[in-house]
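Researcher: Go.
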Amino acid sequence: MKIAIIGASGFIGNNLTKYLLLNTNHNIVAIIHNTLNLEIEGKFESRLITIKADALNYNEMKDALKDVDVAYYLVHLMANNKDDFSEKEVLAAEATSRALKDAKVKRVIYLSGLGNDKEKLSKHLSSRHKTGEILRKYNNEVIELRASMIIGAGSISFEIVKDLVDKSPVIILPKWAKTKTQPIGLSDMLLYLKESINIKILNSEIIEIGGVDAMSYKEFIKKYAKFKNKNILVFCINILSERTAGILLEYFTSKRQSCVGKCMISSFRNEMIVTNNKAQEIFPGIIPLKIEESFI
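Model: Structure:
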């Protein structure tokens, strides 16, 4: 089977490329916009093709997807486009969705974000869900995996937490950091993505996935601090605005992390928890780890 990973240079895409090469016999097409920094053993090189193509460019994507059976869509543009990232993500989803359809790709697997569509979602989560809608509009068989924070080296949201815990004895959070989230370990996420290649579905599915426990963002930070044996104070205050929280991120994290973090801050307002048992029914063999087992 020929598998395309659109967005293979990102955190999940990079890890997924290596994971599929190691754990399946599929041929992998790594579709990238930037450089793919990937160390691959020589015995896997014959199964990996790297193609540079822009998700905003229909023709480039259609050519890159030639003869592909299953494609992963792992594109987000928060790090590069700041305030207009959601508009660019819609354009990318439209162009790539048409290319997927016209290239006759049988199944699309998309990694999205948790969040209740009946609530007023943040710009970040709204864009994630809108992308899923666009993929389903053009393609008959789409698996949208909705997840919260992914715990693993290189995850921007997790790296922000690590930097805050490592660099500051006192962490001040917005009041809405008391809302619930359900983080998932990278190893579990990769397993869900791999198993999505062959699971039987009717048309398209939206599947909520998460770790064992739901907790507030404040509780999560304290849990990680305990793991690191760090004595820190964590406060949630009413007067801390999203803008001020974004400025504070600049002092404790890298430029790329703070750029993405600013886009994600408003998502603290929305609960990101699993609300049904569909993942257990569709993936009965996957038992998520406790979140501490994914800490590094």
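Model: The longest strand covers residues 107-113.
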